[in-house]
Amino acid sequence: MTICIKRRARLQGLVILIACTATLACVQKPVVPSGAARVPINSDEMIQQYRERVKNDQRDKQERSLLTRQIDSLTQQVQELSAALTLMQLNQQELAKGKSRSSPTLTKAALTINSLSAESKGPLTSAPLSHNGDTSPAASDQSMSRTETAQNEEERSTRVGPACSAGPSASAAPFPSPPSSILEGQTNSWRPRVIELSEREQVELHRHSIIFRVSERTGRSEFRPSKPLQSHLKQIMSRGPCLHVRGYTDGDKDLWIERETAKQRTHKARAYLIAQGYDPNHIEITIVPIGHHVADNATKKGRAKNRRVEIEVKEQSPASIWPQWYG
Length: 327
Description:
single chain; 327 residues; CATH 3.30.1330.60; 10 helices; 6 strands
């Protein structure tokens, strides 16, 4: 009996062992990929292609920037040539009408052509004029900073012919001397003062010169003095003194349009004087594209006064011609 019980216990243990072994054999094992068939996204070839594309894009951008600068420079050259051609046509018309007493002269500023370099963008100024129609070699073509140009613009004025250097014409009839009281007042306590001729015309009195000032409209360059001012200008033509014509704008930045406007105002005032019979050799010009304002440029009224043409009459004793202003 005891032997049977032992055999039955052994048989049950064997069955349990077989069942456990079968259960463990049925559990699935996790599959771990080896990575042998993996293809990398950023391969060496793709990285090299990307670097080539970046280099090409940078090269194209630099070429486009250079072309843009060259186009801007060429456009400015075309504008300068157009202005020079207009001036040549004006001089030819004067010569054809017999109103020019000397050969046509062109300012070097009108013929100056900016190079393709981006550095050559200094403001155009007036160039020396000689009596034989050639531009003086004393004019400088070097670029200047805007600040230096604004400060030295008046110093770089044009020259005139030998007739003006010699002073007023000897054949002109002298005006009577001013009263002694006027001369004494000028010597003892003299201060420049301004007289309003009209809303857009002024006269600035100095001891040895007088300045006629005519305001211009925005963007306009025609020179149309009033009848009183025409009378004053005709009054001095028989004496033939030296005249200094200056054209100004209300601009604060060195732009091509400011230089062109100041130049046109200067040349049209000069052309008016020549048309009235004044000797071109007695006229010097200065182009002032920016700065040298006479009024507050922040106000509309001030800008209107700064857009102007000035005709300075150089006389040893202007009080002898206009005693009514110097009294």
